[in-house]
Amino acid sequence: MSAYLTEQPGVDPGAAGRLGEPWPATARRRDDGELEVGGVGVRELAAQHGTPAYVLDEADFRARARAYRTAFAEAFAAVGTETDVYYAGKALLTVAVARWAAEEGLGVDTASGGELAVALRAGVPVAEVGLHGNNKSAAEVATALEAGIGRIIVDSLAEVEMVADVAAARGVVAPVMVRVTTGVHAGGHEYISTAHEDQKFGLSVNPVDGGDAPAMRALLAVVERPSLRLLGIHSHIGSQILDPAGFEVAARAVLTLRAELAGRTGVLVEEVDLGGGYGIAYLPGEAALDPRAVAGDVARAVADVCRELGTPLPRVSIEPGRSIVGPAGITLYTVGTVKPVAVTAQDGSTFTRLYVSVDGGMSDNIRPALYGAQYHAEVVGRASDAAPVLARVVGKHCESGDIVVHEVRLPGDVRAGDLLAVAATGAYGRSMASNYNLLTRPPVVAATGGASRVLVRRETVDDLLALDADAQA
Ligand code: LLP
Predict the structure, then answer these.
(1) What is the DSSP string of 78-99?
(2) Per-residue DSSP letters for 191-234?
(3) Is the Cβ–Cβ distance between 290 and 283 less than 8 Å?
(4) For the chain, how many helices (H) and strands (E)?
(5) pLDDT value of residue 195
(6) 133 lines ligand 1 (CB under 6 A)
(7) Which residues pair with 136 in a beta bridge?
(8) CB of 214 closer than 6 A to ligand 1?
(9) What single-letter DSSP state applies at residue 50?
(10) What is the pLDDT of residue 472?
(11) Residues facing residue 447 across a β-bridge
């Protein structure tokens, strides 16, 4: 159990049967071996909502949101400035989830018109909503401005002009941050890294052709446009980051740019956003980033750099997504076909791998296929004394890469009808789900205080047919 989980408000770390990471904070095994989340047994969850289903531990989500808000508020208060935490809705956004975030004092970071619509429908205070994206449409920007959005994070020089024009046409002043890339690359997988120079996001702090760096050009362009108000500078360095050093390096680059801009224009931006990316545990025994430790390190780094540069401290914001919702969610499946397969190892020896098929797969969790992501699964509807065997959990799609858990030890008597749960699927599961093979996307169910409730209902085949123009009677 990590230090972080022991600190979770409202959760007794010593509660009998608690499982610890990577399971949600309230997950425990009952005396008969059944798993419960939020006080609701998985057999009841499956009977009520069917499988596959995403199940969210609401108390855990809220506790993690509070933990990030408190950790950053305290660490930065200690060096003399204030913070804001924006929940990154791309990890998972429903109206209820947006409300939980807002109720715990977080803003919401959106990355499309769709995410923005959910945050607005949830009633998140619009001043605490941000709009990201490397290719926003003018319509998305117009909607955001009409709603009175708190900040638009501009991602290119062309977008500075577009947002300025859309704002001017409406007679409003758009609050903007400029997203910069600092060259810091951090995180678990190449594709997840968003501050590389050779990628599509942001504007580099490094000059490309001897002139001003693209980031400086964008900042100067924002300062010049009367329909734009420059709030600050934004940097997001990657995702599933387990070494906080990258945040410190990026903070230095951003603060240096801020001081340069102040030197040239007299404009000292009030805010610096250091993005999201805080890593979580996916497997038993893995470490998660401790928000208090990161917040302390980053606050000290920000204070040191500002002292060196002789600039006042900025307000600092962050955008965690995965670390708030990832560990709070599990996916509940029902086991179907179980098939022992003889596998020849590289040294020529053979061993048996038990292929355990479940009623979902790469359509509800693309991360193993897309990133080679590792997950942990257990048989959760009952206890078993059977010796564990080497298993691979696979889905029901027409593709051999349709793997849910590459390698896990499951009880040798795992059989059709068993309930199987995969841990830490709360982030980037439902939000990246597809209808591959025309599977219907599972519901999102919240469990807390001994009761469960549907946040997003299961898709039906009728939903799919409703989109097909030639299927209409
Ligand atoms: N802020 C910005 C500007 C971002 O681009 C992201 C994630 C976040 C915040 C939140 O990052 P988090 O705290 O969740 O790591 N689909 C990938 C992750 C892509 C993350 C993209 N940006 C995955 O499943 O691992």
Answers:
(1) HHT--EEEEEETTS---HHHHH
(2) GG----SSSSSSEESS-SSSSS-HHHHHHHHHHH-TTEEEEEEE
(3) no
(4) 13, 23
(5) 47
(6) no
(7) none
(8) no
(9) -
(10) 86
(11) 57, 452
CA of 64 to the centre of ligand 1 (A): 17
Q: Which fold has domain 59-322?
A: TIM Barrel (3.20.20)
pLDDT in tens, 279-328: 999 999 998 999 999 999 999 999 999 999 999 999 999 999 999 999 99
DSSP state of 153: E
**pLDDT at 188 (0 to 100):** 55
- Using an 8 Å Cβ cutoff, are 151 and 234 in contact? no
Whose Cα sits closest to atom 6 in ligand 1? 276
Residues acting as catalytic residues: 398
| Cα 307–Cα 308–Cα 312 angle in degrees, nearest 5 | 35
- CA dist., res. 73 & res. 65, Å (int): 12
Between the CA of 282 and the centroid of ligand 1 the distance, in Å, is 16
Residue 78 structure tokens: 């200690």
**Phi/psi-derived region of residue 240, left when phi > 0, alpha when psi is between -120 and 50, beta in every other case:** left
Q: Is 91 in the pocket of ligand 1 (CB under 6 A)?
A: yes
Amino acid at the residue 83: T
pLDDT for 183: 84
What average pLDDT values come out for the chain (473 residues) when binned by 10 residues?
38 63 96 97 98 98 98 98 98 98 98 98 98 98 98 98 98 98 71 58 88 96 98 96 91 97 98 97 94 97 98 98 98 98 94 98 98 98 97 97 98 98 98 98 98 98 97 84
With a 6 Å cutoff on the Cβ, whether 368 touches ligand 1 is: no
Query: Helix or strand or coil: residue 93?
Result: coil
What is the largest distance, in Å, between two alpha-carbon atoms of the chain?
73
Q: What pLDDT sits at residue 157? A: 97
Token pair belonging to 370:
């897309």
Contact 314, 269 (CB under 8 A): yes
Ligand 1 center from residue 192 Cα (angstroms): 7
Q: Which residue CA neighbors atom 16 of ligand 1 most closely?
A: 428
Q: Which fold has domain 5-57+327-469?
A: Lyase, Ornithine Decarboxylase; Chain A, domain 1 (2.40.37)
Phi, psi of 272 (to 5 degrees): -130, 130
pLDDT at residue 190 in the model? 41
Residue boundaries of the structural domains of the chain: 5-57+327-469, 59-322
Pull the structure tokens for residue 250: 């990026």
Question: How many CA atoms, within 13 angstroms, populate the side-chain half-sphere of residue 366?
Answer: 11
- Total residues found in the chain within this entry: 473
Query: Residues with Cβ < 8 Å from 236, sequence gap 6 or more?
Result: 179, 194, 195, 201, 202, 273, 274, 275, 276, 277, 319
Give me the half-sphere count of Cα atoms (radius 13 Å) on the Cβ side of residue 83. 27
Distance between CA atoms of 111 and 113, rounded to whole angstroms?
7
Asked if residue 150 has its Cβ within 6 Å of ligand 1, the reply is no
Q: Which pLDDT score is estimated for 7?
A: 41
